[in-house]
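Project outcomes to date are best conveyed with an example. Our students and postdoctoral researchers have been running inverse folding experiments weekly, and each run begins with a structure described purely in tokens. The record below, which covers 205 residues, was selected by the lab manager from last quarter's runs and is presented without edits.
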């Protein structure tokens, strides 16, 4: 989608398409994280579960930092076949280049749910650890959901930066370098949260 909207002249169409995709992505992530939170709240506190999530966060955090500092790149998670990705790209192209209508918006919403559902498999570590830590706090239901909304806000902000840069064809902006730095931040956060969950669980209360 980034390559298709880059330099696209019909700005109103670009914003409607991108807005539909981003908003649908946010709704999906909120629902998925809410489901995770409710599972953790239902299960309650289990030290073994906390250790599992903590060790997973440490492993993924160290892997991200290794990729950034040693491999000089960012991880690419392949969760779908080449045929599936080509099919999705073809549908996005039809929606972007086709006539703007209600079906265009609905199509982008459906694609956002499809793409982000597959992508969540790759990026589930941080939201899962985040909701696990959140479930350890004694908060009201409203505050729990506000914290999830805060996470979703920064998740969407990340997408908006990439799409805006593509829409305005900002020459000095490279998505690969941006994603590389985002992975560094994610690695540091996971390393920090994992360390607390494994070695200093008392700080979660």
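After processing, the design step wrote out the following sequence:
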């Amino acid at each position: 989608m980034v390559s298709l909207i880059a330099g696209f002249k019909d700005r109103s169409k670009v914003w409607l398409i991108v807005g539909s995709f981003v908003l649908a992505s946010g709704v999906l992530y909120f629902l998925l994280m809410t489901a995770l939170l409710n599972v953790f709240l239902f299960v309650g506190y289990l030290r073994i579960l906390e250790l599992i999530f903590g060790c997973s966060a440490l492993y993924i955090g160290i892997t991200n930092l290794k990729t950034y500092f040693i491999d000089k790149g960012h991880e690419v998670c392949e969760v779908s076949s080449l045929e599936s990705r080509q099919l999705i790209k073809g549908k996005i192209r039809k929606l972007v280049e086709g006539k703007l209508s209600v079906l265009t918006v609905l199509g982008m919403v459906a694609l956002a749910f499809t793409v982000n559902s597959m992508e969540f498999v790759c990026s589930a570590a941080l939201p899962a650890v985040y909701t696990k830590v959140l479930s350890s706090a004694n908060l009201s239901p409203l505050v729990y959901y506000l914290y999830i909304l805060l996470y979703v806000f920064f998740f969407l902000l990340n997408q908006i930066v990439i799409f805006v840069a593509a829409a305005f064809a900002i020459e000095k902006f490279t998505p690969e370098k941006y994603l590389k730095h985002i992975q560094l931040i994610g690695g540091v956060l996971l390393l920090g949260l994992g360390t607390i969950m494994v070695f200093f669980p008392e700080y979660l209360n």
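The chain has one domain: 2-199. Residues 11-43 form the longest helix (33 residues). The training component of this project remains on track.
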